[in-house]
Design a protein that fits this description.
348 residues; alpha/beta; Rossmann fold; seven-stranded parallel β-sheet; three-stranded mixed β-sheet; 11 helices; 10 strands; disordered C terminus
Length: 348
Amino acid sequence: MRFLVTGATGFVGGAIARRLIAQGHSVRALVRPESRSTLPEDPAIEAVAGNVTDRPSVEKAIEGADGVFHVAAVYSYWHRDPSETYRVNVDGTENVLAAAKSSGIGRAVFTSTVATLKWPGKDLLADESFVASLDDLPGHYKRSKLMAEQAALSLNDAGFEVVVTNPTAPFGPGDARPTPTGRLVLEFLNHRFPGYVNSGVNACDVEDVAEGHLLAFFKGRAGERYILGSENVSLRGIYDRLARVTGLSRRPVRTPFALAMALGAIDSVLEGRILRREPYIPLEGLRVAKHPMYVDCTKAITELGLPTRPVEESLRRSVDWFVENGYSNAKVRGPRSLDNGDEASVKA
């Protein structure tokens, strides 16, 4: 089969493109000219110049495709121009999926995010039924992705099936323009972290997420959401595991949330407003981290057969890729035993 993949120059999109090729499919990638250098190097990927915000280029790229994976998005917790985030994430989604529908393609997968789920409350796990409202969500990234998810599902009907995936926090190789999760690893390796707040995520492997997308296309139920994740773990637990798999001694300090917000506010003024570049401590990212976002991935595991490798393996693969590709010169020594103070995963 031939698939159009948007966002193939990104972390998750690139992994999906590589996974499709490994299974014998052909891939056409919609690529902005300035992003072409980060497209996976594989002669089986056909690059087509275009942008999800430009409907004619989308229609050209989609000709002859049998299915679509729409992955492209602005994934950032700082926005020089918030309107661009909505233009790419919402309008771009409408462009791609409407073009797919009008071309006669029968099925598409839209990559949303676990960030569109409503926080379930302390010590509870969210599943696909915990869909947030816009008022529940802090910041432009989360709101834009929820609006995009709603737009995608509104196009689902008997003639055009849409399946939504909600990836959690992926780690692993190929994070060329480091995502917020990749930056956690780099901060650890390069001994540059401002501390951590008492929060947590569901961590997963990017290649398991990619496989989950293919499973969603071929096995997922139309109009359904599937959380693609693996292991619930605190931020402290992430750092503990990084220490274990690298043998490096790094002990970031837990920072009270109020102090972190104050530091973020200062950083936003200095970096964001004065220097016009992404703050090191974006306020929107802190607001997102206020509550641990732990989830239940049972639906994707049971219905799709989603693979879920251990988070330590994914972190080690991420570390190895960053070191091998020159993002860090940390002297990784190999695994060590967990200290008594290290945290285990948050159990369901």
